[in-house]
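User: Show me sequence and structure for the first protein, then do the same for the second.

Assistant: Starting with the first protein.
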Amino acid sequence: MKALHFGAGNIGRGFIGKLLADAGVELTFADVSQPLLDALNSRKGYQVHVVGEQARVESVSNVSAVHSGSQDAVALIADADMVTTAVGPNILGKIAGTIAQGLVKRQQQGNTQPLNIIACENMVRGTSQLKASVFAELPQDAQTWVEQYVGFVDSAVDRIVPPAEAGSTDPLEVTVETFSEWIVDETQFKGQPPAIKGMELTNNLMAFVERKLFTLNTGHAITAYLGQQASHATIRDAILDPAIRAVVKGAMEESGAVLIKRYDFDADKHAAYINKILQRFENPYLHDDVERVGRQPLRKLSAGDRLIKPLLGTLEYGLPHKNLVTGIAAALRYRSEQDPQAAELVDLLAKLGPKGALSQISGLPADSDVVAEAVSVYNAM
């Protein structure tokens, strides 16, 4: 089995790429970073530091790499059994052209073996969004052929992969937590789904997508935003602050009430899931900066993402949302000189004020009670 994986960054190497390689897949990474490509092609492998109480180093071998926009990548898509991505939501659309070229070449070569494409991104139904971008690049006759032979499989992914330790000079060094979860929509595959250890099949993906988005992502973001407000450097420092922990746990319980109502989740099992996530945030072996976790506040405050979407659920079902509102207010206070979205947020706040800015970013009505609540908390911070 052959796979091309777009994104040779920490998540690509430490999570999805590792699972594929461990399953014996013939794996090629695609990326734009020449140092990464050179290192992968020179060494044909790398080491993954799995950190936790039972720390270990695991080796990945027999991998290669090509440039994401190259004809080599196009040729690999024409021949592959699987294409996966871990490039980030903002980059996903930029690889659509290469994928489209590869699919056209595949059609021209008469390759009718099933190909499945899985975007492994921190977003809701990222593969469906990638498919729309790919189809915008395809000629009409190719679209019909692709619909027949190519599966676009949505997934939910969960693993904390922090940046490499400061001072590290190895471009391939990667550290990951022990926990990982990769859940895919079995109804979207063409042909038989591959047997890959660590990849779980479901026919109800949205329940797991929203469970992860409303719990891990919501909690992570609020920990980061409140952590920055309290001058904590890392996620661990922030979640060990009792005041922050109370809000984060409260927000995850509020979003959890939405999930329980919407998907009939077992309340006790979901409470255990929340506690597991809090323990992951506390991991003393993961050094994850609050500034990194909080980056891209405009995306995280958008209607379909980790703060506003669960809030909308609480409004839909008439449920409490005090802690979610506190997290949203803290997100408006996020600042980073390294993040263009943080600078854009500052500009919006200056031009529109907190009420107008939040309404424009989130789609919430400016005159709604919940926006007034968030602005009140924001002003009090």
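Switching to the second protein now.
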Amino acid sequence: MASIEVITINGYTAFEDVSVHVGFNEAAGSFSAKLAAELGASATNRIFDVGTAVTITTNGETLLTGHVDSKEPHIAAKEAYITISGRSKSADLVDSSGKHETGYFENKTPLEIGQAISQGIGAQWETDQQLEKVEQYKLQQGESCFRCVEKLARQQGMTITGTAEGNARITKAGSKRQAGSLVEGQNIKSGTAHHNGSNRHSTIIVRGQRPFGHGDENLQIEATEQDGAVKRMRPLIIVQDEDTDKQRARKRAKNRKDRAAGNALKATIVVQGFHDDAGQLWWAGNLVWTESPFLDIAQDMLIESVDFNQSDGGSISTLNLVDPRAYGGEGSAGSGNQSGGEWNMG
């Protein structure tokens, strides 16, 4: 692990403060920086004009590839500085409307649809998963590239995350793991846990019907999931507005139960530096064993987002963690879990 972490933006290092944010459920990362105008106000303004392409690195490793969105020079009697902020190249996929000659697709994967409606945009769609073909899809007028692909990917249990290179990746939570662990008394500088079961229900019932066909199998579709960790009677009924069938209703009920259980356990942990025990960058979407008796956590957690910050006080990473079930992974019910018993599936 490097003893000194240095963030650079296009080679520039004269920052009073710089932060980079990457989130697993965010298609574009973001950054902000407070610049000392050591090259002179005019020169510093020019090199960080709005729209400037930037590559942000730490000790040679890429954190973010994107553009400056905004710039705010400030001058006073005893101080002068410039603040800039921006996002990954994939922000253009989030902000831009999809374009296609017909807007109609048959038997295409979410990746293929995304590529077809985003032609000409600098950021690219990619995936590390095997995606299913979508039977039919019609692009809505003005619909953004991201919104189109995100809802299709979500139906397959996938999440869209931004890459360090500025692309948008269709992926699944927990496919990679950080080296080592986050352990109270060892590498956790500070931490806060959030145990909240207010969104969990004892029974989740999904009901719907098909727009065609007849008989109970088409007109009275119902699927039920039980959350054994909820000891009180707290039923939830979800009515599917769109076309559904028994299998899709069952999947939605299970996803609703798992996501609520996952989001019931979150934590925010601060560590020194930007790397784990093996010198790998902390990164959103990775799993890490987290153990803190005071926070009442002893299980694998998913890194939902990371904030890398460099200032006069040094370099720290703020890790926002969540039970992996929030993204369809295995969480506190998994092997080795010793977190508070109320967070188990039951």
